[in-house]
Structure formats: C-alpha cells, structure tokens
Design a protein that fits this description.
Length: 191
C-alpha cells in the first residue's frame, strides 16, 4: 500500500478525504469502498503527459539499455544515454546502470553528481548486474548522498536474464508502479 497525505478527492463519496491509494483506486474513510479518484483518472487519461519524465541509462554491454527501452513507453518518453542532458525540470528520472566489480562506474557517478534536486524531483532506480541484487541499494545510497529524492521501489535484473521474455513485463510493471506513486506524491504535495 502506498500512503499519501490526506487531501480531498472529487471521485469518492461526496468528496471525502482520501486515505490510501492502491493501483489506481482510493479508499475513502466513510464507506471503506474503492472508487476512482481524480488522481487515478488524471493518470489514466493523461498518462505521463501530466508529469515530465525522463529515462537515462549507462550501459557498457547493452543490458541496461534493454531495460531502459522497456521502461520508456510506460514513462511516456524515449530511453536515452546519460550523454543526453535533461531538459528543464523533471518530475521522475528513471536512472539505470550496472555495477562493475561492485562499484558504480565513474562516468555514471559524475552524471549523478551533476544532477540537482531543483532539476529532478524523484529518481527511480533500475539496475543490472551479474550477481549483486543489492546493486539498486548501492545506487540509492549514492543518489541520497547527493541530496536527490529516490523512489522506494527499484528494479534489478540479472544480466543473464535480460532477454528472458518475462523481463519486459516485470519492467513495465515496475515503471507503472513508479508512475502511480509519483502521481500520488505530486498530487498530495499540490493539494
């Protein structure tokens, strides 16, 4: 479950306070039933257009690029190398990389250092690596150290599984979850 700050929801029973969000629905405190709220409708109707998103990756072998390209359609943008600069304020930056010998590559570290919390609201991490499932956590710590807000959920793919047929579906589910969470956070901050 994703908790959000309380705010009024116009899709519930007489606009009662919104309590929780789960996969596009909200539960209201008086009826304890699910009904579609404005956030859910906005996200479904406008998709990524309601938020500025970007997908950036660093990939030596091509594995992280494959994952980035699966995320991009859900995020509503193109997957691009970290060599392509971000344009303006970005609500969600999906950032992908790998660990090499247990470390974030220097090029990607420099890119992360160049990011500003004024430029990027939230970073969603996706990683590939040979064996270290903790790769995403290593990235999260580094991003937080540089004052960037990091989404709780991450995605990890073992490099050997990149071309497995299930990976695209898993990756898309991760991206949808991040988009839902970011939509909730953006609306709860604005309301």
């Amino acid at each position: 479950r994703i908790a959000a700050k309380a705010f009024l929801c116009d899709g519930g029973v007489n606009g009662h306070a919104h309590i929780k969000h789960k996969r596009g629905h909200c539960w209201h405190n008086l009826t304890n039933t699910q009904s579609q709220c404005k956030i859910s409708r906005d996200y479904r109707e406008n998709g990524a257009e309601s938020m500025k998103t970007a997908v950036r990756y660093y990939s030596r072998t091509g594995n992280t690029k494959v994952i980035a390209e699966a995320i991009a359609p859900v995020a509503g943008c193109q997957a691009e190398s970290i060599e392509v600069p971000l344009e303006g304020m970005t609500d969600i930056l999906f950032l992908g990389g790998a660990l090499y010998w247990g470390k974030i590559p220097r090029t990607l570290k420099e890119y992360i250092k160049s990011l500003s919390p004024h430029q990027v609201k939230y970073v969603a991490v996706f990683t590939t690596a040979g064996i270290l499932e903790s790769a995403s956590e290593i990235y999260k710590v580094f991003l937080r150290y540089h004052d960037l807000k990091v989404m709780k959920d991450t995605y990890f793919c073992n490099g050997k599984r990149v071309y497995d047929g299930k990976i695209k579906e898993e990756t898309m589910l991760f991206a949808e979850k991040v988009m839902d969470q970011a939509s909730i956070m953006n609306h709860s901050i604005m309301d």
